[in-house]
Amino acid sequence: MKQIAIVAMAAACLALFTISATAQGPGGPPGGPRMDMPAGPQGPPEFGGPLPGHMDGGDLFEKREGFFQKKLGLTDEQTKEMRNQFVNFQERTRKTRMALMTLADEKRTMLMSGKIDAQKLASIDEEIVKTTSELMRERLKMRRDRLSLLTPDQITRLADAMAERHHRRGGHHRGMR
Asked: Cβ distance 54 to 135 under 8 Å?
């Protein structure tokens, strides 16, 4: 029973850790892209900037594979299986990710043209929410599958690394200091 509780807690922590890590995106501000930024490579996706991590299909493990290998003590077989799971995730979600990029492009085009149809914009936003939810469901499944590959010792190491990262970032009350 105690082991099940530890695994469940580790799974929840892993999900929170990876969601918060990917929400920032590469070099982006905490909390995701800002809507008041100008157009260009640094601006939000609606104005030609990069897509947030949940849209580009990126994965924290893929970006920091060596870190996880060392920190968790992953075997070559575990690393290979995690990489395979990511490749399978990419293949399963390709259409969903492309649909999300198409929706973001359609929204950006509408906003930049100045001819905003509020009803069409609401429809696009609803479709973005639906598509993002589908993608997140698949991503969380992949993370659960990856978690099942870890030994109890590796789960403990993961929890320690997550706690350390949480502490470095100031916990949940960063703005309340």
From this structure: yes
| Among candidate residues 105, 97, 115, 96, the one with its CA nearest the CA of residue 46 | 105
Distances (CA, A) of 149 to 8, 78, 118: 14, 7, 47
Instruction: Assign 31 to helix, strand or coil.
Output: coil
The three-class DSSP label of residue 98 is helix
104 Cβ neighbours under 8 A, 6+ residues apart: 45, 46, 51, 55, 128
Q: Do the Cβ atoms of 169 and 177 come closer than 8 Å?
A: no
| Angle (nearest 5°) at CA 31 between 27 and 36 | 85
Per-residue pLDDT of the chain (177 residues), as tens digits, is: 555 555 445 554 454 444 444 444 444 444 444 444 333 334 444 444 444 444 444 555 555 667 778 888 999 999 999 999 999 999 999 999 999 999 999 999 999 998 999 999 999 999 999 999 999 999 999 999 999 999 999 999 988 888 887 777 666 655 544
In a 3-state reduction of DSSP, which class is residue 30? coil
CA distance linking residue 57 with residue 140, whole number of Å: 12
DSSP state of 43: S
Question: Which residue bears the tokens 């502490």?
Answer: 167
